[in-house]
Specification:
The protein is of the alpha/beta class. The chain is built from 15 helices and 28 strands. It is globular, with a radius of gyration of 25 Å. The protein starts with a helix and ends in a 5-residue tail after the last helix.
């Protein structure tokens, strides 16, 4: 017994002396040669209905890494299970702009046992905890056990405080991000019509919904239609099989639903009357199904002057259906399009005037824009290369480079706060929704594992990577989510925190908190400590308000 005790003491001493894992905030991007302060333990706070993560940086040179399942234990014998990925790296050749840079940047989240990274890359684990709405509030504790090279590393203690307040499973901010079955099939080497491709599309879209994002496009196949006596007879069976789980809330255990859905135009409907009848049938089907998602018609994207007549015609056809189907137009304020848009969606840079060259032909602050529009018109926004620059790399003109810097951004080689900023910014501005053109664009043009540079930016239009059986570490076809998708989700959760504070009578506090993070579209706080401090303050205020609120009474939960 004495010898066993001595050997255990010696092992503990050796582990303590060896460089152990370090915990780094999920608001940082861990890169080669960038020194970040780390902690020996992870402390997280999350609402019910929320996900939060920490990064665990392993000692340099760690190989053959294995991770034991992590389940934190808490009140009433409850558990909180963790998901663990390894961060893979992209070798960026051309920076998105002066805020980016060349070299290795973390983005794909891959299985822990997948192929190792290039020499010199950090070995980083992304550890995520998600608390369902039914999770018992309180303190949960456990330890992450990692082996490298067949030897155990020092355990990493995890403490998570599950808060009593609840975030809704479905995003309170309407959004619609593009995705395509055909792009996915191309990158995975599958036939689009195959059952395997259809199942894979479901997995991709489910991953978006798990990150609070609704999708448009998908298979892009319109339901078959024929016309009888001026009425559209539509077969919605295939459409319902594809879309139903996401519209009715059965795709995920959380019950999350799409906030929006696009009308899929049909080439079979040729005349104006047939098109209107088809749109009418589409809207009536949604109503009969009881689907709550906002059905919209996506008009000609970014119309040029020669496209104005087409957009006007499209709007007239939709309105002739005499159904509540808004027409979405992606354009800045334009008198030529007045009356055609029910949802006007300019790019982000069209809302915030700043000195220097103009990157939008009509910059109008949101409140001014609303006064110029009909009262029923909603205003969305979207990111484009007009924020980071469409050519790639810093420009020689300092004034031009400045106007393309600082914006909220979904680029790989930009700081995490820029990736996360759209949620708080949406709350502060009061915008009605967000659009994004694609999430798998690079699947069409290149190998995303090597390069996602499109439209002058690294990752513009690409938030996934194709996991295939041909790639080490993947036993089947599957979507590989990006760190940026996690950051977008975190920003949407920030939006929910701010909205909940507002609903509990803390509007002034909520606006001040959002302003500390995002003063404008191009003035985003990049100090991660400030983001963490604001989140702590919001959490403390919400706990205090929640205890006495009607929300808490209805949920039957009190703070511990």
């Amino acid at each position: 017994m004495g010898a066993g005790w001595a050997m255990g003491w010696l092992l503990a001493e050796l582990l303590a002396a060896a460089p152990g894992p370090r915990v780094v905030s999920a608001l940082e991007k861990v890169r080669p040669g960038v020194e970040l302060k780390g902690e020996k333990e992870a402390r997280l706070s999350l609402a019910r209905g929320e996900c939060e993560a920490a990064q665990v940086v392993l000692p340099q040179g760690s190989t053959r890494v294995q991770v034991k399942p992590l389940a934190l234990r808490g009140p009433k014998g409850g558990t909180l299970k963790a998901s663990v990925w390894r961060e893979a790296f992209l070798d960026v050749k051309t920076p998105s702009n002066s805020q980016g840079g060349t070299g290795l940047w973390p983005d794909p989240l891959v299985p822990v046992e997948s192929a190792p990274e290039p020499e010199g890359a950090p070995h980083v684990l992304y550890v995520e905890l998600c608390a369902p709405e039914s999770q018992e509030p309180g303190t949960y504790q456990g330890a992450l056990h990692v082996e490298a090279g067949g030897k155990p590393l020092a355990p990493v203690p995890f403490t998570a405080e599950v808060q009593p307040f609840v975030l809704p499973a479905t995003s309170s901010l309407p959004n619609s991000f593009g995705i395509s079955l055909y792009s996915i099939s191309r990158a995975h080497g599958l036939k689009p019509e195959s059952p395997e491709a259809r199942e894979l599309l479901h997995d991709y879209v489910g991953a978006l919904l798990a990150h609070r994002i609704s999708a448009h496009g998908m298979s892009m196949n319109p339901p078959p239609v024929r016309f009888e006596g001026g009425k559209a007879v539509v077969d919605f069976s295939a459409y319902d099989a594809e879309m139903g789980p996401f519209l009715e809330g059965s795709a995920l255990s959380s019950g999350a639903r799409f906030t929006t859905a696009d009308v899929r135009d049909s080439k079979v409907a040729r005349t104006d009357a047939e098109k209107s009848a088809y749109y009418r049938a589409f809207a009536e089907h949604f109503r009969q199904k009881g689907w709550k998602a906002r059905l919209f018609f996506y008009a000609k994207d970014e119309p040029k002057p020669e496209d104005v007549a087409l957009v006007r015609t499209q709007a007239l056809r939709v309105r002739a259906a005499k159904q509540d189907v808004p027409v979405l137009v992606t354009a800045p304020l334009d008198d030529a399009l007045r009356g055609s848009a029910d949802i006007l969606a300019p790019t982000l840079n069209c809302f915030f005037p700043r000195p220097g060259p103009q990157t939008c032909r009509n910059v109008v602050p949101l409140q001014t824009l609303r006064r110029k529009l009909d009262p029923h018109v909603k205003v969305w926004w979207y990111q484009s290369c007009n924020s980071h620059g469409c050519n790639g790399g810093p420009t020689e003109d300092a004034a031009e480079e400045k106007v393309y810097s600082g914006w909220a951004s979904y680029m790989v080689d930009h700081p995490t706060p820029l990736n996360r900023a759209m949620g708080p910014l949406a709350f502060l501005s009061g915008v009605d929704g967000e659009l994004y053109f694609d999430t798998v664009f690079a699947y069409n043009t290149k190998d995303p594992w090597k390069d996602v540079f499109e439209f002058g930016g690294n990752g513009d239009g690409t938030l996934f990577y194709p996991g295939t059986p041909a790639r080490p570490g993947f036993s089947r076809h599957q979507p590989v989510v990006s760190l940026r998708l996690k950051h977008i989700r975190d920003g949407l959760e920030d939006y929910e925190y701010l909205r909940l504070l507002e609903s509990l009578g803390e509007q002034t506090f909520a606006r001040e908190a959002a302003r500390r993070l995002t003063r404008s579209g191009y003035e985003v706080e990049t100090d991660t400590r400030q983001w963490e401090q604001v989140r702590r303050e919001m959490t403390a205020r919400l706990r205090k308000r929640w205890e006495a609120s009607e929300y808490a009474k209805r949920s039957g939960v009190r703070p511990k």
